[in-house]
Amino acid sequence: MAEPMVEVFIFETRQFLEQLEQIALGSEEQGGFSEEDVNEIFRAMHTIKGSAAMMMFDQVSTLAHSVEDIFFYIRELKPAKVDATAITDIVLNAVDFMRIEMEKLDAGGTPDMSSEELRNYTKDFLRNMKLDNGHDPDIDLRKAKNAKKASEAGGDAAAPATEPEKKQYYIGAAKPATPAPAATGATSGGQHIFEATVFFQQGCEMEEVRAFGVVNSLKEKVKELHYLPEKILEDESATDTIRNMGFRLFFTTDMNFDEAKAELDQTIFLDRLEIKEVANVAELEYWPSQETIAITALENSEPIKPAMPPVQRDLTPAARKPAPAKGGDGAQMITVRVDKLDKLMDLVGEMVIAEAMVTQNPDLKGMELDNFAKAARQLHKINGELQDSVMALRMVPLEGTFKKMNRIVRDMTKKLGKKARLVLVGESTEVDKNINEHISDPLMHIVRNSVDHGIEMPEVRVEAGKEETGTVILSAENAGGEVVIKIKDDGGGLNKEKILERARKNGILTKPESELTDREIYSFIFAPGFSTKEAVTEFSGRGVGMDVVVSNIKSLGGKVIVDSEPGLGSTTTIKIPLTLAIIEGMSVSVGGSRFTIPINYISRSFRPDEGAIFRDPDGSEMIMVQGTCCPVIRLYDMYDIPDAIHEPTEGILLLLEAGDARFGVLADELLGVQEIVVKPVPKYISRMMKTTGISGCTLLGDGSISLIIDPQQVHNIIFD
Amino acid sequence: MEDDKLLMEDEDTQKDKYLTFTLGNEVYGIDIKVVIEIIGIQKITVVPEVPEYVKGIINLRGKIIPVVDMHLRFKRPGKEYSDRTCVIVIDVNDVLIGLIVDGVSEVLTIPEKNVVPPPELKASQNKYIRSIGKIGEGVVLLLDWMKLFSEDDQSLFDDMSAEEASEEAT
Fold first, then answer.
1. What is the CATH code of the structural domain delimited by B2-169?
2. Can you give the pTM of this predicted structure?
């Protein structure tokens, strides 16, 4: 199977799974499935089933089939008693199963986990549901439906063989390169023509998918292949036809009779095989010429896959590109590989630097260049816009990530016997794709924590005069260059005493207890191995997790703050810079070297007065700023740079704020604020450097390299 | 597939071809296929906490590349850079590295039959020399770039894991 095919398959299936999950959760909330939902789920499952079968992932396709059956039943017979919660469970379980399989496939494995248990459970469930609703559990819905359809349409639809429709697209057009000798019936020497009918075992289920498997395995070995019914996967009556009349194959091949028979004998669940060789294709009962296929292909427009725009159906298989256009709401979309976007982003970054190199070129110093300045401003403006639009390309709404939390809240409340609902605010806020990916885990941990530790049991809530159902509000907004995500619950709030006690026990108190602010106390919950929960539950209490939250968010350059009011709930606020690749930085010079410090860490810079910097007996330097004593480090000392200014009164001191501490770094001179493109330090070197406080490098306007200082790392060097 | 083919053809035409450069009194050779380009010496940005032979990083048209002084790399006293000093940019497993050498000479074809393995000396100073090529009266020391850069990466990794282990122990 071609790699792009797999990619498209994974991509599409994942989209369907997401859609399925949302619909299922939404339906459960409403307490039932609307007709539209049923159709949506049915269609999604049907498509997954079809494409999985095409890719020969039987476990996935059979599972999809069994779930589809439930919705088929609901759709056709509209039973009165529908247990929405139980069905949602089934859908979600199936979604989970498929998701895992997709992961596996994505990682280069084969989706081979058995879905039998789920399948059987689903089947039993459907049976019981039919019984509950007074229907015959063994009723053959597809037959019933076809009969209905037939009577409605005057017998038209009942005979699928009479509606030859385009099928070729899904199976690779059965070698369209070899023109059918249909009209003349002439065959070249050594070619055999067969007519075969395959009967599947009674009750093997999913005959259409099995038939598809036959086509798939056969098409490699035959010259030309036609079969009845033509539309195996799209036509709902096909199953029936195959079941009753057998799956009929007509093909020309190099194989002789025995080989062809042996080939077909391998079919799984084969009950009976009829095969005969004929001398001429004209003798075959069914042998459409290429022209009729082409015409029917054009005429055929009944779309079974709703997510695919009709234009794609007319494409020849060769023209099918691994970029599925997702139609729907009219917006034209294309799918682009992320690495292409990354490349584009890199290039724009280069251009920002190149622009600075031109406009701030030392050759221009001191020249009066009005027109040049005008043109340069224009260029700057366009570059800025370009940068914004490229960044916008990488921006995705938080919606998907936020909606995943619905599932978590649902699962947790169900297991814990609590009542809670999740309210999403501002989920259309867009963030960089990278951020979106990295925020998912932290959010999950925090939401879990809110439900597990925050929201009380319903009884307790009622007693406290609160609404029985707790609320978790997940909100996002843009604030300046940051995105602010808040997770707010109306639960019991954090227990300061318990946290303190635990902190004492773990020995992570950094200050005397009386000096700790509330925020500092709350932030202990992010320490590794910290948990106030006595009992470890399935979801939380092990103390792993919250420290992951912090480290994940820090890796995005963001920070986490917790606020809490006893009895009223707690709020976790996450602030993350919108983009990581381009940041604003203050560049400083130290001797011949250049350093850049992200501007948001700098709280102020000043030239210290004579004697303002003093030493303690160990030789560590510090300075008094606004009543607090801040350590001072000299960059030339730290990085061993010759020819730097040693006298603080001649240099400049930058006061940096990282974590909850402030410290000063001494440099020679400020070079100015500039938008910089963060480039990683070459691997060869970063392997040798350990904790140096250098997080990357960048190019300055004059083409020289500046090292980016990560104040967080420097903070760790100083204080640990 | 196409790419592979091209690559193979490339390798064929580049077989037995070496870029020679001088380092002190010796002439060294490096497989032409790993050489990306040759540039003059330029401003080097010093980075902290690296071995002495890593002089720092340079800006090659927007790409940031580490440069290594080959004199120091072979544990010899360093030499002042002049306008003959060159940086040979090579690609070792997709990592670009610049080698600072006294000067580059030419591209030579040294057929396999003229290449002999180095003697196995005890004071294995020549572990970075893969073989020695004969050119008329002179010799060219053929550099084992694989060992030169992958191996000390390896030792770096070892260092790190050792450190991590000791950290865990405390």
1. 2.40.50.180
2. 0.49
